[in-house]
Amino acid sequence: MTPRIEVVGIDCLMLRLFDEIDEAHMPWLLAATRRLREAFGPALVDLVPSYTTLLVHYDLTQLNDDQARERVSQALNELRPDTGGQARELEIPVWYDTSVGPELEALGQRSGLGVAGVIERHSARPYQVFALGFAPGFAFMGLVDECLASPRLQTPRKQVPAGSLGIADRQTAIYPLVSPGGWNLIGRSPTRLFDRELDGYSIWQPGDRVRFQPIDHAEFVRLGGDDTPFEVMP
After folding, report:
1. Has residue 24 got a pLDDT over 70?
2. Residue 66 backbone dihedrals phi, psi, to 5 degrees
3. Do residue 103 and residue 71 come from a single domain?
4. How do residues 71-101 score in pLDDT, each as one tens digit?
5. Which helix (H) or strand (E) holds 6?
6. What confidence score (pLDDT) does residue 86 get?
7. Is the dihedral of CA 133, 134, 137, 140 positive or negative?
8. Residue 161 Cα distances to 14, 165, 227, angstroms
9. Would you say residue 81 lies in a domain?
10. Residue 158 belongs to a domain
11. With CB atoms 3.0 to 4.6 Å apart as the test, which of 36, 65, 101, 127 could cross-link to 186 if both were Cys?
12. 69 with 118, same domain?
């Protein structure tokens, strides 16, 4: 691994650690995140991990560009992957149903798995949280089985209901709030993902692992889920 430093703002550096998305990279990204926080201390404004990069936003009143680069070099010196087993395992209930997942049936036909097969395959394994973005509490997770990989919709929807579970390429995610979106929707979760009382306003953070637990309609409603069919959402 040979990290590259890119300037993306007067007070921001982008560290590119890898060129391809791979779950095996996450221990390195987590280790780099920890070392950078320690190296920058109070001069760090924000640190944003993603699939292959880390965005370092620092305080210009405390550091100049050369000093920031020096701290990056110190943090990454002899870096080793974080294998301490600190990642959390989260289980998120999902009601997989065509009434709230308009692409579920089409995905079943395209993959040859049928609706039941898509549900079984999608919920069979845990997913790595690679990054947070787009909206508070929106976690980009992966990688889904190749047979479930689906390109984004050509025309994004103006409104996607909160809790909607979708697939885009080999990523999967849940919309925490009502928002525009172009992912293929296959179900809905009753779990509240965005909470102002939580650290980072999100129930999950990069490095967490998430497993989706299929539930029936009655359990979905009992947990507070909104079962309004997708086609009648405003």
Report:
1. yes
2. -65, -40
3. no
4. 999 999 888 887 655 678 999 999 999 999 9
5. strand 4-9
6. 60
7. negative
8. 33, 10, 10
9. no
10. yes
11. 101
12. no
Q: Name the pLDDT band for 108 (thresholds 50, 70, 90).
A: very high
Number of domains forming the structure of the chain: 2
**pTM for this structure?**
0.84
- Write out the two tokens for 206: 């990069």
Q: Maximum CA pair distance of the chain?
A: 59
Give yes or no: residues 111 and 42 share one domain: no
Residue type, 207: G
Is there a single domain that holds both residue 119 and residue 61?
no
Q: Are the CB atoms for 189 and 170 separated by under 8 Å? A: no
Q: Is 83 part of a structural domain of the chain? A: no
Instruction: List the CATH number of the domain containing 28.
Output: 3.30.1360.40
Q: Nearest to residue 189, comparing CAs of 88, 90, 121? A: 90
According to DSSP, the residues that pair with 93 across neighbouring strands are 213
Burial class of 201 by CB neighbour count within 10 A (0 to 12, 13 to 18, 19+): middle
